[in-house]
Amino acid sequence: MPPLTSNSVRIRTLLEGDAVAQAVELMAMLELTGLRLSRLDLPRSDLSGAPLSGALLDFATLTGTDLSAADLSGADLTGADLSAARLVGADLSGADLTGTKLWVSDLTNANLSGTTLRRAEFIGTILTGADLSRCQLLDTAFRSARYSRTSTRWPVGFDPQRQGLVPVD
């Protein structure tokens, strides 16, 4: 049996207590980088600050989930539902969001540089201060999404107003 560390003792204590109320604290202690979570159904959860770099979250249901300041760099979110999710300050650089729903989500100050956004749907999404430079935007829907003319960054040649985005300033 491996030696007990302070984290393993804390995890054992959490598992013996109220698992539902303490699940978020437990997840924060685990190493989630590169984790395979395909088709995960975890709506209205708090995963803020979670280390999910390179995670496989394809077709996951994360509606209403708080992923603020989460590290999702290089993650595969193909076909995921992130409607009403909070991704404020999240790092999604280099992630694959092909076919992802981001309806009424908040991506204020999120880093999406180099992200694949083919057929992604940004309907009523907040993109104020987001970095979408170097993104692949093939067949991406931006209906009524809001952005800042001064702080939102786009790929070279992209015209947000021609794509149906609404400036907030």
Gross morphology: globular
Largest sheet: 2 strands, parallel
Rg, nearest Å: 17 Å
Q: Which CATH top level class of the largest domain fits? A: Mainly Beta
Please name the fourth-level CATH homologous superfamily of the largest domain. Answer: E3 ubiquitin-protein ligase SopA
Task: Determine the CATH topology of the largest domain.
Answer: Pectate Lyase C-like
Strand line-up across the major sheet? 1-2
Mean pLDDT: 86
Query: Unreliable runs, pLDDT <50, ≥5 residues?
Result: 1-17
Count of the domains: 2
Our estimate of the beta-strand percent is: under 5%
Helix content: 10-25%
Give the gist of this structure.
With 169 residues, this protein is low in regular secondary structure.
Helix-strand blueprint:
Layout: H1 6-16, H2 19-29, E1 146-147, E2 166-167
Describe this structure in words.
There is one protein chain. By secondary structure, this protein is largely without helices or strands. The protein folds into 2 domains: 30 residues, no CATH class; 138 residues, E3 ubiquitin-protein ligase SopA (Pectate Lyase C-like), CATH 2.160.20. It has a two-stranded parallel sheet. Helix 1 packs antiparallel against helix 2. 40% of the residues are buried.
